[in-house]
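User: Run a structure prediction on this.
Assistant: Running it now.
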Amino acid sequence: MIAPTAVVLEGTVLGPGCEVQAGAILGKSPKLARSSTAARADLPPLQVGTEAVICAQAIVFAGTRLGDRVIIGDQAFVRERVTIGEGSLIGRGSTVENDTTIGARVKIQTQVYITAYMTIEDDVFVGPGVTTTNDDTMSRHDKAYTLRGPVLRRACRIGGGAVLCPGVEIGEEAFVAAGAIVTRDVPARAVVMGVPARVVREVPDADLLERWR
C-alpha cells in the first residue's frame, strides 16, 4: 500500500507487501555540503524488503537497503549507503546517518541519533534519546582524518539518553545505563554507568538474550 501523498522516486524498488504511509519520501538523493566527508558517487536505487513499513513523513535516501519487515517510524531519517537488517525498527524521529550498517532485529527507539560510519550488530537495543558521535576533533581536522562511529556488538543494550563517544566498542551483551557517557570500550557482558561510564558489575546469566527469545 502506498499512500497518495507519499513520494516514491524513480528507481526505488519495493518488495511485496510494503506499506508507505502519508508524506513519506523514498529514494531521495543527498545534497552534500562542500566539506562533507560522504562519498559523492552516483547511488544505486533504494531497495525495500518484503512487508517493510515506512511510516508517515519518514525520509529514506537512495543507496540504502532495508531488509524484510523493517519498520521506519514516523519522521525518521535514514541516509544513503545504510543497510538495515530484517525485522529491525527505527523509532519515531530518529536519524541514521550515512555508511552505517544495522543488523537484524535491532530496536532503535524514539529520537535516537545514529552517527555515520557505525556498525550495529544483531539484536541490539538502543534506548530513547541516545546520541552517538564519530569525530573527536569536532570538525577541526584535515582530509586524512578518519571518522569513527561506535561499534555495538550483538545483543548489547544502551539506556536512554546515553552518549557514546567516537570509536568506542560496546561488547556483546553489555549494558550501558541510562544517561551514561561512554568514553572507552565496554567489555562483553559488562554493566557500565556514570559520567564517565565505569564498569560496576557483570550482566547475569538470567538477563542474557537467549533467556528472553
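The mean pLDDT is 95.
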